[in-house]
Structure formats: C-alpha cells, structure tokens
Amino acid sequence: MPLIPLQIPKGVYRNGTEYMSQGRWRDVNLVRWHEDALRPIGGWQQRGTVDLNKTVRGMLAWEDNSGNRYVAFGAHDSLTAMTSGNTTYDITPTSFTTGRVTATALTGYGGGLYGYELYGTPRSDTGVLQRATTWSLDNWGEYLLACSSDDGKIVEWQLNGATPAAALANAPTDNTAMMVTEERFVFALGAGGNPRKVQFSDREDNTVWTPAATNEAGDIELQTNGTILAGLRTRGQALILTDQDAHTATYQGPPFVYGFERVGTSCGLIAPLAAASVDAGAIWMGRRSFFLYSGGQVQEIPCDVGDYVFSDMNTDQRSKIAAVPNAQWNEIWWFYPSGGATECDRYVAYDYVENIWMTGELDRTSGVDRGVFREPMWIQSDGELYEHEIGYTYGSATPYAETGPISIGAGDNVMRVTSLIPDEKTQGDVSAKFKTRFYPNASETEHGPFTMSNPTDVRFTGRQVRMRVEGNTNADWRVGVMRIDARAGGKR
C-alpha cells in the first residue's frame, strides 16, 4: 500500500470538540510555523541578573538623543528605569498613589444583597471589579511620560537617575491612561475622572492644557456607553479603545484640531494592555473575539483557538492580559491567566501575515519588542527579566505539537501502521508518539516515544490516530510532512 502523508495545515485549531480538529494541530507549546515547517520558537535567557522583584504591567524601550538606551517598568507601587548596562533607577514619583497588584472582585461577603441568591453558587455580575494596576508609557522626545491607572497623574522623567519622575505641569489628574500622538499632542484618557473624556495638550507643548485662541489644546467627551481603557498610534490616526467600542482621532488643524469618529461597536478591549499596533494595523483582544483596525472600520479576526482561550481564562483577572508584538516573526502574543491561575501563565499568539494561531504556557506579564535592543525582552511575574528568541533552551519546558484525530482508515476499516518515514531538518532532533482510538470517545492507547530513523519502525492499529512530536533541547529542529505505512487490518 502506498505511504500515507500526514499533511497537517499550519496553525492550531482548538474550537469545539476534539474530533472537530481532525487533521489539524490541536495542542502545542513553544512552537511556530515558518516557511511551511513546524519549528520551535527561540529560547530565552535572563538579562544579566535583572530581577525587579515585583510584578510589572507596562514596559517601554527607547533611545535618548545621544543614543543611550533605556527600558521603563511600571508596577502597582513603583516606576523603574533601566539602562542598557542593566543599571536600574527607582523613579517613582513623590506622592504616588499605590495601586493593586491583583484585581479584586467585590462580590463576596457584603458585596451583594443578603439572601438574594442561593448559598454556595457563583454570584451574579452585580459587583464592582477593581482592575489590577497597569501603566501607559510613551515618549515625549527623549523624555519618558507615564501614567498609572490608579495614581492617575501624567508624570515625566527627564533621564536623571537621581531625580524621580514628576507630575506634568497643568496636566489633568485622575486619568485612566495617556498617549502621545504622531502630531505631538499628549492625550489624557479618562481625563479628570470622567471615563469618557479625552483631553489634549497644545501641540508641541505638553504643559499647556487650557484651550485658547492662541493654542490647540482641547477636550471632548466621547459618545459611548463604555469606559476608555487605552489609546495607541495607528497610521495617520490615534485609536482610542473603550471596553465597548473603538474611536479614531484624526488631526484636522484649528479650529476643531481633532475629529473623532466611532469606527467599531461591540469590539471593546478586554484589558488596558491587550492591544498592540503593528504594520498590519492595531490588533486587540476583546471579551470573546480578536479585532483588527487598519483603516475604515474595525474587523473581527476569525480565531481558530477562541473557544479554548476564552473558556480557559480567569475572567476576574482579565485586566492583567498583556499584548506584546514580536515583529521579527510577524506575531502578537497575549499573556493571560488561565482559569485556575491568578497570574498570567498562558499565551495565545497570532501570526498576522500567515493568519495562523498558536497557544502555549509561559509566565510573562509584559514585554517590549526588539528594535531599541537586539532581542525582545519579556518579564516574568516575579520580576525576572528575560531576553527572548535566543538559543533553544526553555527552562523546564519542552516544545511540542500534537494533532487532533487523523483518520487513517477508510469506512469501518481498522488500519495497522508498521513504519513512519520522518521529514526533519536534522534526523533525530525530534521524537514522535502516537495515540490511537477505535472510536472518537473510546479509550486511547499511547505508543512511543519513537526515536527517528529512516524508516522508523512503529506498531499500532486503530481507526484514528493522534501524533505528537517533541523537540530535543538546544536543537533548531524542523518538521515537514511525515508519512506512515498503513495497511488494512480488518474491522472492529
């Protein structure tokens, strides 16, 4: 009988039942697809001995006018700057209001109506969810601008390690977030405690906030039933995201300065840090979907893993979700807390060029892309800073990819598989396991692992099989189209 190729499409499919992912990759970790081959992601190493010993929710990397490089880190109780030589400075503003390291849902004892619902059952959505503290960070020239979601003040750091960041003169307080536009205006979002208000400084002068005939400062209250969470720059516009919808701000010049337009409804942002801007446009995670804005109107991105991701999430801690671009590989990664976790321990990643999805497990809370620094830098929940896409070591984790069911028999035939013809870059860099069943919900039998040879002797029977490949540590392996020698073994 001719060899049967296991031609499995790129990307992960994990919606619905296990059998709905037949012939697709279903369960993966620390892998990606590039040039039609399955391969491991780059590994990571700690950057020197940098350990901030705190949970970071907001990072920014930049260069000053002399080419010196910095990274800023925002935590619930501090703001830290680090030089390229790993020297760190505590630049927390004086009179800083400490926030929350974790989200708090006020739905416990005393958080609802007495006797209203059954004892021991989950409470209704009637309480107030206080989000974990996040930071919006941006540059005003070579200086750092920052705003903590709980402190609410826009502060500026002028690169002196001995001097902390200071409140920006005349800027509104009690803000949710901030951003700097392409035209060099500072936008205060949720300005003055109004969750729908956008207030902006004069152009090129971030200390002038009172509108006058001689400046371009101004403000507007968005017509939305949502709360502003974040703003980011896109091509020729600023995009403002609420928890319900999306709005653009387009510079028009005096007297109106900016024109605001709603470009999407029912596309709210799930968390303040859950959006990223890349060449393809602005991409973000919503409550049950992913969205793209590249001009015109917001589009929902079909997601092959949405069912798994959103049913696997601790929604009480959704404010901790963070998006990090990885432009070298045309990816955006979202780190999120799984259903049984209170901190980010899993990820979902999207290759926006190949239009494929990846999932896995990784403890990271924020990060910056390569560019200012040679490699991407992502930070762990305990404050240890790692450089990524370096080598192929992953701590105690192992890259792997496992398929959904693959039907190997026609009709009711049971197939007997005797050999596997591997397709690897370097033979022996991966091992394979096979898991067989006779019916979709029947018990499963595991075979292997098999060390690859050409051919590889295997012995198993079944109507459907799942294949799992695992990479060796420190190996830059590739997997293409495996083939199996399968023969009819009768009926069962």
Entry keywords:
1 helix, 492 residues, Jelly Rolls
> The CATH topology of the largest domain is what?
Methylamine Dehydrogenase, Chain H
Low-pLDDT stretches: 110-116
| CATH level-1 class of the largest domain | Mainly Beta
CATH superfamily of the largest domain: YVTN repeat-like/Quinoprotein amine dehydrogenase
Q: How many β-strands, per DSSP?
A: 42
Number of domains: 2
Mean pLDDT: 93
- What amount of the residues lies in strands? over 45%
Share in helix: under 10%
Q: Can you summarize the main beta sheet?
A: 6 strands, antiparallel
Question: Which CATH architecture of the largest domain is right?
Answer: 7 Propeller
- Ends apart, CA distance between termini: 21 Å
Query: How many DSSP H or I helices?
Result: 1
List the helices and strands and how they pair.
Blueprint: E1 4-6, E2 25-29, E3 31-34, E4 37-40, E5 44-51, E6 56-63, E7 69-75, E8 78-83, E9 88-90, E10 104-105, E11 129-130, E12 135-140, E13 143-148, E14 154-157, E15 166-167, E16 177-180, E17 186-189, E18 197-200, E19 218-221, E20 228-234, E21 237-242, E22 245-253, E23 257-265, E24 275-278, E25 281-285, E26 290-293, E27 299-301, H1 306-311, E28 322-326, E29 331-336, E30 346-351, E31 356-361, E32 366-368, E33 377-379, E34 384-388, E35 400-403, E36 406-407, E37 413-421, E38 430-437, E39 445-451, E40 456-462, E41 464-471, E42 482-491
Antiparallel strand pairs: 1-42, 2-35, 3-4, 5-34, 6-7, 7-8, 8-9, 10-11, 12-13, 13-14, 14-15, 16-17, 17-18, 18-19, 20-21, 21-22, 22-23, 24-25, 25-26, 26-27, 28-29, 29-30, 30-31, 32-33, 33-34, 35-41, 36-41, 37-40, 37-42, 38-39, 38-41
